[in-house]
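Internal ticket - ligand job 403, iron/sulfur cluster:
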Amino acid sequence: MAFGIYVHVPYCLQLCPYCDFTKYEWGPGAKQILAPEKYTELVKQEIRQRAEGIRAKDVATIYFGGGTPSLLEPSLILSLIDEVANAGFKLRGPEISIEIDPATIDEARLDQLLAGGVTRFSVGAQSFNDRLLKIAGRKHTSKDTVELLNILKRKGVNYSFDLLFALPSQTLSELNEDVARAIDYGPSHISAYNLTVPEGHKLDAGRAPEGEQIEMFDLIETKLGAAGIHRYEISNFAKPGFESRHNSLYWQDQPYWGVGLSSHSFLTPDALPEADAAQAPYGVRFWNRRAMKEYEKEMTVGAKHPWSFVTNLPEGQKEILQEHQAMTDFLHTSLRPLKGLDENALRLKFSEASSARAIKRLDELVTYGWATRDSLGWALTREGRLLANQAFEKLTFLQGELS
Ligand code: SF4
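stdout (structure tokens):
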């Protein structure tokens, strides 16, 4: 088992119109929200008070996401890593990642984070095109990004580049230029996200038609592949050995604990104390509140002891997984990586009858041309990846459909 911790930092330079994450705008209005020092203190309380609800003590990854964690003073970020260690977790050469926004970080702050154990940076660059950055509502400019990438390159730091595409009015040749420039800076990892907004959203107008968006997907894969940065998951590309260890936990049915405002967690039975594992044979999902006031209240009241995520959390904040939910999660997440879903892992986790039902549906995907099957299991084809949401719908089990 590999276990990871996600820390949510809910402050942003701007509130991007396409983003659903829980965040608060940083700046003059920041006075109305909780000061970062106080927020960090609450997260530390959460770690201290609830660590005993987790049996897994070896931490493989810590991921600071948001929001924009690079808005926080590095000393606050590092104090959270210390708190994890103080709460009894063992950090054995973990991957420690932090999301950074180009307009919020300089060399001195990078050095502090590196010296404190951060091993990987995820740069929210999105594009080098200032017109498109403006359309996306971003405050940073391509000049900020170039300055940051030059520093990262000079230092030989391991980093990932976030690329946002299919923005309103963006052309194939503009995307081509973004990809080429990103490659020039030598990132070890690139996450490429097709802008996702609901129909009627102001950013939905003027986007490339579907056929051209597919060409955009292909362009990204071809260019990155030629540069040795290979697709290993629907939206993620890496040089060999530089795949995100933290995100891989999500796709490999591994447990993770999300701390901070609105964070989500998934603990498998082997990551839970034995008494909890007996009550949650398929594990438990739980989540923190989205409103700062409520989160603050919950963390200030404190935790019962011994703390149990299975019994102490209120009903609206947890889901003790039943077999059909665990199967749905397993199928959806395991098919995201290109190497696909391992038949042995499926059979090990679920009963023979339930595995057989899942296998029937997986084989149906093969008949549609959305998946391939070999001696190890199933993997999505190019078409299956493009139609992933439809493929996952077919792999969704409702209550009563298993056993
Ligand atoms: S900076 Fe990132 S987290 Fe913040 S609003 Fe924009 S997209 Fe969302």
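Auto-summary: The chain has a mean pLDDT of 96. Residues 210-226 form the longest helix (17 residues).
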